[in-house]
Amino acid sequence: MEAAEGSATTEARGESKLQWWMLGGFALGLGLGLVVHFFAGGAAWVETVTTYVTGPIGQLFLRLLFMLVIPLLFSALVVGIAEMGEIKSLRRVGLRTLLLTIVVSSIAVLISIGIVNLLQPGAGTDPAMVQSMLDDAGGNASAILERTGSTPTGIDAVLSIVPSNVVSAMTANDILAVMFFALFFGIGILLAGDRREVQVLKDGIEGIFVVAMKLIGIVIKMAPLAVFCFMFNLAALFGWELMVRLSAYVGVVLLALGAQMFIVFPLLLILIAKKSPLDFFRQTQEATVMAFSTASSNATLPTALRVADLELKLPRKVARFVLTVGATANQNGTAMFEGVTVLFLAQFFGVDLSFTQQVTVMLICILGGIGTAGVPAGSLPVVALILGMVGVPPEGIGLVLGVDRFLDMCRTTLNVVGDLVLATVVSTGEKDAPEGAPA
Q1: 8 Å CB contact between 309 and 421
Q2: Residue whose C-alpha is closest to residue 418's, from 330, 306, 325
Q3: Which of the residues 3, 298, 324, 341 has the least number of beta carbons within 10 Å of its own beta carbon?
Q4: Which spans in 260-392 are helix H?
C-alpha cells in the first residue's frame, strides 16, 4: 500500500512538472509568434518554418492522440458500464445513477451550448486570416480524419449512431457509433453475469484501457513541444487578436461551469435531496480543494469517499457505488468543457455548425464524459477527435492547451462536486446496512 501511495505521489509530481512545461511552451510559443507576426508577418521564411518544422511536429502529436483515442474510449466505456452489474444488490441504484448522470450531463451540455451561442466568444475573427488557416490545415486534417465535413443530417444522423459495421466505424473515426457499440457491448457483459469467460473478456478489455492510458501518458510528455508549435503557428498568423479570443473563451467556460455548480446543483439538492446547498458545500470543501489541486477525479476518489461517509453521512454501499462509477462516468465539467471548446473553435475558424451537428456534439460530449479517464488532460483526445468530425482543423486544439491546466482544475472540481451531489440525491430514501449485510 505504501509503495502504491509513493508511486502515486511521484506520478502526481511528474504531472505537475509537465503542466508547468506546457505552460512554458504556451507562453514561449505565443510570445515568439506575436513577435514574428509584428516584425515579419507574411514573410516567406515564416511560411517555410510553419510548413516544414512547427506544423509537422504538431501534426505528429495529434496523430499519436488519434491513434489511441478509439481503444481508450471503447475500453473505458465498456468497463464502466459492465462494472455497474458487479454489485447485484445495487442494480436499482445503478439504474438511478445512470439515469441521473445522463439527465444532469444533458443539462450541463445544453447550458454550455446555450452560453456559447449567446456570447459568441470565437466569432468576429478576420475571415481572410481564418480562410488562410483553414487552407493550410485542411489537408492535414483530412489526412487524419477523412470524415470532416460529411456529418449526416436529419434522420440519417440518428441512424448513423448505430453502426452496421463497427470495424468500419472505427476505421472512419465515427466516435458516436463506436461509443454506441461500446455502450451496447458493456450492457451485454452486464447481462451475461459472472461466468468465467465473461470475466476474462472484461479483464482483457480493462487491460486495453490500462495500456492505452499508459501510452497516452507517454504521448502527453510531448505536449510542451507541441503546445509551443501550435501557439507559434496561431500567434504568427492571428497576432494580438488571439489574446482577446482566448480570454473570452476562458470566461465562457468559467461562466458555464459556474452556472452548473451554483444553479443546477443547488436546485437538485433542494428539490430532490431536501438538503441545504450551503451545508452541502461546507461539508464537501475538503474534496473540493483536493479536486482543484490535483485536477484528477480518480486521485480525489478516496477523499470523496471519506467526505461522503464522515461529513455527508450517506449510506456506505450507495456512496461507494455512485462515487466509484461517477469518477469515470459522471463528468459534468468535462462534458461542458468539451462542448464549449468545440463550439468556440468552430466559431473561431468560421465553421458554421447546423443544429443537428450541435446536437451531435452534445451527444458525443455526454458519452465522452462517461468514457473519459478521470486524469489530468483526459478529455483532450476526445476534443481533438470531435473537432475533426465537425470540420474544424484539429490543430485548433493548440489554442486551449496552454490554458487547459487551469480549466482542468475547475472542471475537475465540478466533476467531483457533481459526483457527491449525485450520491446525495441517489441516497435519498436509501438506508444504510451493516457491513457485509445485503442491501
Answers
A1: no
A2: 330
A3: 3
A4: 265-268, 277-283, 285-294, 297-310, 316-329, 332-348, 355-371, 380-389
- Model confidence, pTM: 0.67
The terminus-to-terminus CA distance of the chain in angstroms comes to: 29
Query: Which of 131 and 394 is assigned the larger pLDDT?
Result: 394
Which of 130 and 393 is assigned the larger pLDDT?
393
| Phi/psi at 33 (5° precision) | -65, -40
Helix, strand, or coil (residue 341): helix
| Separation of alpha carbons 169 and 426, rounded Å | 36
- Tell me the C-alpha distance between 158 and 49, whole Å: 43
Strand locations in 10-61 (E) = none
Find all residues with CB under 8 Å of 306, minimum gap 6, and list them.
286
Question: DSSP characters for 199-236?
Answer: HHHHHHHHHHHHHHHHHHHHHHTTHHHHHHHHHHHHHH
d(CA 419, CA 90): 17
State whether the Cα torsion 281-285-288-289 is positive or negative. positive
Closest listed residue to residue 296, CA positions, set 19, 1, 6, 2: 19
Task: Read off the C-alpha cell for 422.
Answer: 449525485
263 CB-near residues (< 8 Å, 6+ apart): none
Residue with cell 459534468: 332
Of residues 436 and 10, the one with the higher pLDDT is 10
